[in-house]
Specification:
three-stranded mixed sheet; 3 strands; mainly alpha
C-alpha cells in the first residue's frame, strides 16, 4: 500500500473532517475505532486493511485523497459504506479477500459440525484449514460455529451461494450509509465517482436499490431509531 509511520493518523489530535467522521461513525455503528492512515495515491480509493500487530489482527482504513476532500453527507456516505464492513458479520469479506477463499473458509466452518461433504470433502487445502480451526479456536466457539453451520445446512442444503452473499453485503453497506445520511444525491455522487468499484454489482442497480430502500418502512424505522427522522 506504500504506507509508513508518517501516514498514520493520530486520532487524539487530528481534527480533520474525515477523522472526526470516522470516530463518530464508529460510535454510532457500535464499532471499535479503526486505525486510520492518510493515503496519497490520487487514483486509489478508501480501503479496509487487514493488519498484523504483535501477532494480533487489527483493522484499519486507508483514507484515499478523494475521501479526505469530501465533506458533509458525501463524506459520511463514503466512510459509512466502508465501515459497515467492519461489523463482525461482514469483516470476513476482507479477511479472506477473494470469493474463492471465502467459499473455502465457509466450507471449513460448516465442516466443524461433522466431516467435510460435497465437492470440498477431498480438498486438501480445506482439510488443512479445518485442522487448524479445530486446534486454534476455543472449544465453546467451535461448538457455536458448528451449531450455526448445521442450521445453515438444514435451511439451505449444500447450495450456499457465496457470490450472491458478497453482492448482498455491498447493497446492505450502502443502505446503512444511506440511513446515516438520508441523502440520495450524496449517495449517487459517491457511488458514481468510485475509481474501482469493489463490487461486481452495477452502479445502476446499486442506485436503484437505494431509491427503493429510501421509501421503505425499514428505512424510516432505522432513521427513527437513530433519532434522525424529520419531525
Amino acid at each position: 500500500m506504500g504506507l509508513g509511520r508518517r501516514h498514520r493518523i493520530e486520532l487524539a489530535t487530528d481534527r480533520s473532517p474525515s477523522v472526526l467522521a470516522a470516530v463518530q461513525l464508529a460510535e454510532v455503528m457500535a464499532l471499535p475505532v479503526p486505525e486510520l492512515f492518510r493515503g496519497e495515491n490520487e487514483s486509489a480509493q478508501t480501503v479496509i486493511l487487514n493488519l498484523q500487530y504483535k501477532g494480533q489482527p487489527r483493522t484499519a482504513l486507508a483514507l484515499a485523497p478523494s475521501t479526505q476532500r469530501r465533506n458533509s453527507f458525501d463524506l459520511v456516505f463514503d466512510l459509512g459504506t466502508q465501515m459497515a464492513f467492519l461489523r463482525p458479520e461482514r469483516i470476513l469479506r476482507f479477511v479472506f479477500g477473494t470469493p474463492a477463499a471465502i467459499e473455502l473458509g465457509l466450507r471449513a466452518a460448516l465442516a466443524l459440525g461433522g466431516g467435510p461433504t460435497g465437492p470440498y470433502g477431498a480438498n486438501p487445502e480445506m482439510n488443512q484449514l479445518l485442522t487448524y480451526l479445530r486446534r486454534s479456536v476455543a472449544p465453546p466457539t467451535v461448538t457455536a460455529i458448528a451449531a450455526a453451520g448445521r442450521a445453515l445446512t438444514e435451511a439451505r442444503g449444500e447450495n450456499v451461494d457465496v457470490t450472491k452473499w458478497l453482492g448482498a453485503t455491498h447493497l446492505s453497506a450502502a443502505r446503512a450509509a444511506l440511513v446515516l445520511t438520508g441523502d440520495l444525491a450524496a449517495a449517487a455522487r459517491v457511488i458514481m465517482s468510485e475509481p474501482m468499484p469493489l463490487t461486481p454489482i452495477s452502479v445502476q442497480r446499486r442506485l436503484l436499490d437505494l431509491v427503493a430502500f429510501s421509501v421503505s418502512d425499514d428505512y424510516f424505522t432505522c432513521r427513527r431509531h437513530l433519532g434522525l427522522q424529520v419531525a
